[in-house]
Amino acid sequence: MFQALNPLHFIALAGIIIPLLIHLWNRKEGKLVQVGSIKWLQNVENNSISRLQFSQWWLFFIRALIVCLVVFLLVQPVLLVDKKATNKTLVMVEHSLRGIVAVEEKIDALAKSGFTVRQLADEEALQNYWSVLKSLERDESSPEKLIFISSGKLRNFQGTRPASAIETEWVIVPDDTVRKSIAGVRRTANDSLLILSVASTASVTTLKERRISMRSAVFQSEYATFSQGQELFLVNRLSDDTVVVEDQWQSKVGIYKDTTFAGNAQYLEAAIVAVEKYLQANFEIYYLENDKLPDEANYDLVCWLSAKPLPASIGQSGTHYLVYRPSAMADDSPWWVRHQEDPYQYIWHKPLDARLMMKPMELPAALLEMIARKKWPDPDASLYDKRAISFQQMQPGKIESKSGERDVEKAVVALEFYIWVLVFLLFLIERLLSERSKTWRS
Fold it and tell me: Burial level of 162, CB count in 10 A (0-12/13-18/19+)?
């Protein structure tokens, strides 16, 4: 498509009148010359006149065309042509999948089809695919289609699934293996270890605790230990996992009771001791002498057996509070509920009395979930979680492109050089015809 960068200069086309005036000027009547006889002129009269007329019209046309071309140079004409169609499909491959024969064959086939292949770095995969898709959506040179070659691990799809105008296709490389890892190890009583093991597949991840004596033959065959400084490390001989052994779990529990609930405190203390023995931990239980809150940083849990309200300053250091508010209607309700406004406060409704002797394990079991919240540090799921996301969850929501269909990219071709060449050639032709015209006139 032709386009002029300075279209106002087309006014200069009025200069075409110049060759017209030159043409009319050359048509003036010649001089009268007296000759003795026209006998020798009659043979060439017709041919000379016709050649002269033909030459004059061609001179007018060439001169007019030169003027037009000069005007075209002033308006700076360009030619817009469609760029050669390119395949705007981007293939993104997880780094961990490179080297797998089936994946490499797929990449080679896509590359031969003209697709651009990019390898995702490990940090990009951990950042999650939704972030990668959002960043590509904001890029001005974003592709029309994306092909992700992925393991489809659930941990790489965190956050809200974005809507995208980019067509997305997923090629999932299934992983049917089972990954077994050690998520944590803690010392317990009697020279034993409590091992938290993890087994993960594409469908499920399970956690399992195992208490084992370091002197047993099973331990000697499956594990090994070594010290480095003041830390003890556990090595799994089967998977080569190496984990730091945490110290025995210790917890500090404070109990405040007033005269109204003095008899109920003994049941609560017995349940805490039962949890301590079950976990083979070391719990320190303190009875608070007054209703002033203790130094919260020193307590993991404070049990509040009093009708008095808790002070407004609780919850600033992460200490949890169990507030006893017995209710006769709480037999079928949960043992405790989290406070609606304060995440550090739990409300206990079921009575702490002799009726607990009928079901001696219910109270310790209820306390176990609350007390054991600090039993293990939050494990890094990226180290062992192999669960895969479902195919339906992978598909991002579709949105229409803001500009509708993508505009076809144009290539700009400047025409100045070609016009100058044509002007030069026409000038040579004009000079040649002009000289020949003078010859025919003479």
Answer: middle
pLDDT digit string, tens, across residues 354-380: 776 667 677 777 777 667 665 666 666
51 contact partners, CB below 8 Å, separation of at least 6:
440
Q: Quickly name the fold that domain 250-372 has.
A: Rossmann fold (3.40.50)
Separation between Cα atoms, residue 43 and residue 27, nearest integer Å: 23
Residue type, 265: A
Three-state DSSP at 253 gives strand
What's the predicted TM-score (pTM) here?
Answer: 0.52
The whole-angstrom distance between residue 116's C-alpha and the CA centroid of its chain comes to: 18
- DSSP single-letter state for residue 384: T
Alpha helices in 81-159 (DSSP H): 101-112, 122-127, 129-138
Q: What are the structural domain ranges in the chain? A: 2-28+40-82+410-441, 89-175+388-398, 179-248+379-383, 250-372
Instruction: Please give the Cα distance from 416 to 371 (Å, whole number).
Output: 84
CA dihedral 322, 210, 248, 236 (to 10 degrees): -140
